């Protein structure tokens, strides 16, 4: 059995977007519906917080300082030192029911973030790439809820999910151009095991997936077969990310949104930041180069 611990009982509404910054030795994460950006330092236990004006789906640390964040309306820069947000790109003015969700940098330092239909009934979501020159391009369209974005260790396979379809796809990825091709089904989450949410890849090339409403994270081998299931004491885990001095800790954000008072009583860690020692190491997340 794997020991799961709650390192931060944050009671987030919709915790998400975990990313470990090696240079700072800190974990950034967000509370989407709470509209809060977090920075957790495991050495001190301190969790810094900054409020933003919109739902915040994901983020990345910038090589030049500060953060790039995907707010409901699009891509922005955020300076934690002064709390200032600067608009970069608003690619969906024609899709008012959408908001941005899961996002991450590829291994070349481009920031990708996907949108979703906030009522989660229509395939109006898409996946966007923000380049270092701040050009923004829609790469994938027609999803209900964009999620599970991550890359293989060699950067030549991109994983991406539509939570509404309960499927994670694998794409051939061109690291130089940031282009995708040859979409195929990598895995399908069966009924009764939740739905695919956030994901990350470990140093051995296995994908770790959080199951929304599934009480678990699952490790899949590079062919999409289940290698390991870790049961969790929260119903709605959302996003795994490797951190720690040697990227040996798996952090997992979670949500309390939609839970009844009785369900919250039975899940005191819901909305908290969880951690476990999985016995494998993660990969360094590249800072956004823009």
List the helices and strands and how they pair.
Elements: E1 4-8, E2 15-21, E3 26-31, E4 36-41, E5 46-51, E6 56-61, E7 67-71, E8 74-79, E9 84-89, E10 98-105, E11 111-117, E12 125-130, E13 136-143, E14 146-151, E15 157-162, E16 167-174, E17 179-188, E18 195-201, E19 207-212, E20 216-220, E21 226-231, E22 237-243, E23 249-254, H1 261-266, E24 273-276
Antiparallel strand pairs: 1-24, 2-3, 3-4, 4-5, 6-7, 7-8, 8-9, 10-11, 11-12, 12-13, 14-15, 15-16, 16-17, 18-19, 19-20, 20-21, 22-23, 23-24
Given the helix and strand composition, which structural class is it? Answer: mainly beta
Strand content: over 45%
Order of helices and strands: EEEEEEEEEEEEEEEEEEEEEEEHE
Report the helical percentage: under 10%
Find the count of extended strands (DSSP E, 2+ residues): 24
Distance between the termini: 42 Å
Q: What's the number of helices?
A: 1
Q: Rg to the nearest angstrom?
A: 17 Å
Rounded average pLDDT: 97
Which strands sit side by side, in order, in the main sheet? Answer: 1-24-23-22
Low-pLDDT segments, ≥5 res? none
Shape: globular
How would a textbook summarize the main sheet?
4 strands, antiparallel
């Amino acid at each position: 059995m794997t020991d799961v611990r709650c390192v931060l009982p944050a009671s987030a509404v919709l915790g998400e977007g975990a990313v470990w910054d090696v240079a700072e030795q800190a974990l950034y994460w967000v509370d989407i519906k709470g509209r809060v950006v977090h920075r957790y330092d495991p050495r001190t236990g301190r969790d810094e917080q900054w409020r933003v004006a919109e739902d915040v789906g994901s983020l990345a640390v910038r090589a030049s300082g500060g953060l790039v964040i995907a707010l409901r309306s699009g891509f922005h820069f955020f300076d934690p030192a002064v709390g200032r947000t600067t608009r970069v790109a608003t690619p969906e003015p024609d899709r008012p029911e959408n908001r941005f969700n899961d996002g991450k940098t590829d291994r070349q330092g481009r920031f990708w973030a996907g949108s979703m239909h906030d009522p989660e009934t229509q395939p109006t979501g898409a996946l966007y790439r923000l380049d270092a020159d701040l050009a923004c391009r829609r790469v994938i369209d027609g999803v209900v809820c964009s999620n599970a974005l991550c890359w293989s260790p060699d950067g030549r396979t991109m994983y991406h999910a539509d939570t509404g379809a309960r499927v994670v796809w694998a794409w051939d990825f061109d690291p130089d151009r940031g282009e995708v091709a040859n979409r195929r089904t990598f895995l399908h989450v069966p009924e009764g095991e939740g739905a695919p949410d956030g994901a990350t890849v470990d140093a051995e090339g296995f994908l770790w997936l959080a199951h929304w409403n599934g009480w678990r994270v699952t490790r899949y081998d590079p062919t999409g077969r289940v290698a390991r299931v870790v049961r969790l004491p929260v119903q709605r885990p959302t996003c795994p990310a490797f951190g720690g001095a040697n990227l040996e800790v798996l952090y997992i954000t979670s949500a309390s949104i939609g839970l009844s008072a009785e369900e919250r009583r039975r899940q005191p860690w819901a909305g908290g930041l969880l951690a476990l020692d999985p016995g494998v190491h993660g990969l360094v997340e590249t800072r956004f180069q823009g």
